[in-house]
What does this fold into?
Amino acid sequence: MKAMIETADLKKAIVNLTQVKQAKNNPLILKSIRIRSNDECLILESSNLDQTTKAKVPAVCENPGTYCVKLEDLSKIVKLIKADDIWIESQGENLSIVTDGVKYALPTQDAERFPDVSMLHSDERIFGCLTFPAPAFLDMLQKMKPFLSKESNRPIFTGINVKVKGENRIAFCATDGKKILEIQMDAGLPEHVPADTVNFILHGGIIDQFAKLKGWQDITLNLVTSKSAEKPRVTAVILDQVGTYDFQFRSTIIQGRFPDYEKCFPDTPFESVFDRKTFLDAVKKMEPSFKSTEAKKIRLEIHEHKTVFSAGSEKDGFTTEIEIESNHNQPGNILQIAFNGSFLKEMLNTFSDESLVLRSSGNNQHGCLIQRGDLGNDKTILIMPLRNL
It folds into this structure.
């Protein structure tokens, strides 16, 4: 094999390939990438069996061939190269990288041992797709990250639940078992796709993979199912970018049943509307007081047109009280609720819209922070109260 490729294209491909994370105990062949050449391009592929990335890069090729090299070694070499173009040549059992008179030799692995990384296997078919504006989709993924569990013994909590919710709406949800985030987005769901077939759990690892996607207007997730299934059931998703630089990404889904988290959200008429920045500023000003208590408690007393924040205790001799404007939809009723101040501050920082809704089941009951209209997303975070006001 002999091919000439632009350095910038190869670096871009390596960035995408390295986002497929490998476990330390994975065999060397999985820590390698397969490089195939034809008359007009190089095809680079990496896989950890759950996720697969394929990048097709323009190249001037002679003598087509297929080789496997360790991705970490190739990445280190390419980072050193400043020239605009690179020659990749096969020499015996090595693959050489030649540029500016310097030759780097990479040992190769047995390409036949590389796993089947077909985007669509022979017994599979694509039965539908979900299309989202790229900025909104990528923003949603980043918001999900703090809510994912890192406990491998509970795999469903390490992923993102995706399901249809309402007409042409898709709900994404992440929870670590202690806090819950749901974000709803508009999606172009084809009419022939039954709503009840779209309910699956994406691997949380796609967040890092998709974070590298730049300059896209839309993102389409192709839904894969088995050809033999009487009723479609999502078994994998495929993402495509077609252009001068072609990029494909495939991910299997996490097997298991995601908890019915909607039962945790209060479905009550008790809602209060706040200016988000004013609410957050009040919590920040209360921080020295609520941090002085063991439970880091901040108390809210919500009236029809105002909310009073208080923290600290007379016993500690350190109390603070702040009043801000708000609109409560239950005139004559006063809602009293307390939260962990540090957690409340962290959750408020995940929102970006001007207006914020606090919905609660009643005095000292669980509540939700809700934002509508952020990049087309509806966002809901469950916050649990501290029981003793």
In short: DSSP finds six helices and 26 strands in the chain. Residues 293 and 312 are 6 Å apart (CA to CA). The first helix runs from residue 7 to 17.
